[in-house]
């Protein structure tokens, strides 16, 4: 029986069961498509194919986990999702261009079918993986103010928990629900109870954009309810550029001590690897969010319940020296998990492999093969890229255990 704050508990449960038990030779069903995987790999040139084969060589057919997959939508097909109208008009060119790029990259060609097309494309790309792949799919709550009012002006998009749970029920073994419940929402505790009962074990926050302060003592009853239900928190750490934000201080990794001290397991998204914040331990000093995230991971008090995902550490705006540092921290590997932050890897400007080549983390030849994989399947591209990254000094790569379902 895994401890209730272990990764295998957090990502186990009713929705992961099918993926966990699927051996390499699992009979084909709607979720596992060996034929789709075969035809994708066969469509690649020999160099790209060899890169994919190397990325899967030590996976040995085990199920994979992508711990950070966004679902977005416009509310079509009864999803209940919402996108801020400013994303959809040229009155706000920057937001509009960003939204259009993301939707196009994620396979949306018809706004009237946006939500169905988004999920359909994601499933298709997942089916082309040469091993079973479980996707932790994320809801996204509204921005709330401290007094419990919904602030639509500060909400870029909204993805309801009901939709996330319904998708996970439709795709057991493929989709693991990660609900998003704002602690300042008046019905937050009832929603936690409801989602726990539905089998959700993870709650996702993006404080910089959603406006909750993880260090706020008024959130304690929320954390206590989470702890009672053995629910873990997947929380963005670091600066935030893909969602507009007026509160980068809320992305300070040190603010997560409060839930941890109350017994809640926490996954810091992105290992905090953008921006800097006040070093709350050394008043008057600033530190990079990455340094602060490492300080949290190094804190012996949190060793059994603090983790980090490596989603978007390869991002264009990220400091790629951080990847080298992580590759030197083999002691942390058991507490790091892979996430793609899909759809971002599908957006060309969001991940620039040429910068990773300049940083010495991949070779010129690998970059060219990765570009070929990306054109066919950006989700697979993200996976193969993470498996290809190598510390030029030590030759160390991230181990298979960071990519498999714990
Ligand atoms: Zn994300």
CATH class category label: Alpha Beta
Instruction: Output the radius of gyration.
Output: 20 Å
Largest sheet: 8 strands, parallel
How would the global form be characterised?
globular
Series of H and E elements: HHHHEEHHEEHEHEHHEHEEEHEHEHHH
CATH architecture: Alpha-Beta Barrel
What structural category do the secondary elements indicate?
alpha/beta
- Terminal residue distance: 13 Å
Number of folding domains? 1
Secondary structure tally: strands = 12
Total helices: the number is: 16
Ligands, deduplicated = zinc ion
What CATH calls the topology is: TIM Barrel
Could you name the CATH homologous superfamily? Metal-dependent hydrolases
Q: How do the strands of the widest beta sheet line up side by side? A: 1-3-5-6-7-8-11-12
What descriptors fit this protein?
406 residues; 12 strands; globular; 8-stranded parallel sheet; TIM Barrel; binds zinc ion
If you had to describe this structure to a student in words, what would you say it looks like?
- The protein has 16 helices and 12 strands.
- It has helices at 7-10, 17-20, 34-43, 46-57, 93-105, 114-127, 161-170, 188-197, 207-210, 220-228, 257-261, 289-298, 321-327, 353-358, 364-376, 378-388; strands at 64-70, 82-83, 133-138, 157-158, 175-179, 202-205, 232-236, 266-269, 276-278, 286-288, 306-309, 336-337.
- It has one domain: TIM Barrel, CATH 3.20.20.
- Helix 4 (46-57) crosses helix 16, helix 8 (188-197) packs parallel to helix 10 and helix 15 (364-376) packs antiparallel against helix 16 (378-388).
- The strands form 3 sheets. An 8-stranded parallel β-sheet has the order 1-3-5-6-7-8-11-12. Strands 2-4 form a two-stranded antiparallel ribbon. The protein has a two-stranded antiparallel sheet with strand order 9-10.
- By secondary structure, it is of the alpha/beta class.
- The structure holds zinc ion.
- Residues 68, 70, 341 line the site of zinc ion.
- The site of zinc ion has 3 residues, from strand 1.
């Amino acid at each position: 029986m895994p401890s209730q704050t272990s990764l295998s508990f957090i990502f186990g449960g009713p929705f992961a069961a099918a993926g966990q038990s699927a051996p390499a030779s699992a009979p084909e069903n709607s979720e596992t498509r060996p034929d789709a995987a075969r035809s994708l790999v066969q469509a690649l040139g020999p160099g790209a194919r060899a890169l994919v084969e190397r990325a899967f060589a030590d996976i040995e057919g085990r199920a994979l986990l992508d711990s950070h997959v966004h679902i977005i939508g416009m509310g079509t097909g009864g999803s209940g999702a919402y996108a801020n109208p400013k994303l959809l008009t040229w009155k706000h060119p920057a937001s509009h261009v960003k939204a259009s790029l993301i939707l196009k990259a994620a396979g949306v060609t018809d706004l009237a079918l946006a939500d169905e097309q988004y999920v359909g494309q994601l499933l298709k790309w997942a089916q082309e993986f040469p091993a079973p792949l479980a996707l932790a799919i994320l809801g996204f709550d509204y921005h709330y103010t401290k007094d419990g009012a919904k602030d639509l002006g500060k909400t870029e998009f909204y993805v309801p928990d009901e939709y996330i749970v319904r998708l996970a029920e439709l795709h057991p073994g493929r989709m693991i629900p990660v609900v998003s419940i704002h602690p300042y929402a008046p019905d937050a505790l009832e929603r936690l109870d409801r989602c726990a009962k539905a089998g959700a074990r993870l709650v996702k926050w993006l404080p910089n954009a959603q406006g909750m302060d993880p260090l706020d003592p008024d959130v304690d009853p929320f954390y206590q309810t989470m702890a009672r239900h053995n629910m873990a928190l997947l929380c963005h750490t670091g600066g935030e550029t893909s969602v507009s934000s007026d509160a980068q201080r809320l992305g300070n990794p040190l603010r997560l001590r409060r839930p941890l001290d109350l017994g809640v397991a926490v996954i810091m998204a992105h290992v905090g690897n953008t921006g800097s914040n006040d070093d709350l331990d050394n008043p008057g000093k600033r530190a990079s969010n990455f340094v602060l995230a490492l300080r949290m991971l190094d804190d012996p008090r949190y060793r059994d319940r603090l983790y980090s995902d490596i989603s978007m550490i390869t991002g264009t705006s990220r400091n790629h020296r951080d990847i080298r540092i992580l590759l030197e921290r083999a002691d942390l590997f058991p507490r790091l998990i892979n996430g793609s932050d899909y759809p971002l890897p599908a957006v060309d400007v969001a991940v620039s492999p040429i910068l990773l080549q300049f940083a010495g983390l991949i070779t010129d030849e690998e970059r060219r093969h990765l570009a070929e994989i990306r054109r066919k399947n950006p989700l697979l591209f993200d996976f193969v890229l993470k498996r290809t990254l190598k510390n030029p000094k030590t030759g160390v790569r991230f181990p298979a255990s960071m990519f498999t379902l714990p």
